């Protein structure tokens, strides 16, 4: 018998933030982790996401918009957030049935941010297909955590 100890939830989550699939590798889910890494590379390559990131962070927002394949990039938020949730859930044997909510709402809001990233200006500034979706993650996670805590409180009152 091995002395394998499951990683902490937040450790697996942060490795998945680094690259979808790394958290699964940490959890010894090698097949699933390989699939997530492969999907990440496919979506990233077909969406031209690395170029969009470079252009966005160097202030060339219109170039980021022009180079981005939005039909491919639309897959990215759900892939990314699902891989993070899966790694988080598998680590330490997560049993909370509502732990998915912040991840789902995060993916939803990031997708909405991506949809509006070519048109929506905040204080007159166009943020583009990388920065605006990142900004939309904050309210998405917030809504998800609020609903998560409300449901936990309601479940606690029923017992």
Could you walk me through the main structural features you see in this protein, from its secondary elements to its overall organization?
The protein has a two-stranded antiparallel ribbon with strand order 1-2. It contains 9 helices and 2 strands; from the N terminus they run ααααααααββα. The chain has one domain. The chain is mainly α and 159 residues long. The radius of gyration is 17 Å and the shape is flat. The chain crosses the membrane at residues 35-58, 70-88, 100-118, 130-151. Keywords: Membrane, Transmembrane, Transmembrane helix. It comes from Metabacillus endolithicus. This is DUF805 domain-containing protein.
Low-confidence stretches: none
- What portion of the residues fall into strands of 2 or more residues? under 5%
Tell me the structural class: mainly alpha
Basic shape? flat
Q: Based on DSSP secondary structure assignment, what is the total number of beta strands? A: 2
Q: In what order do the strands lie side by side in the largest sheet?
A: 1-2
Q: How large is the count of helical segments?
A: 9
Helix percentage? over 70%
Radius of gyration: 17 Å
Sheet with the most strands?
Answer: 2 strands, antiparallel
User: How many individual domains?
Assistant: 1
Element order: H for helix, E for strand: HHHHHHHHEEH
Average pLDDT metric: 92
The end-to-end span amounts to 39 Å
Keywords:
two-stranded antiparallel ribbon; 159 residues; mainly alpha; 2 strands; 9 helices; single chain
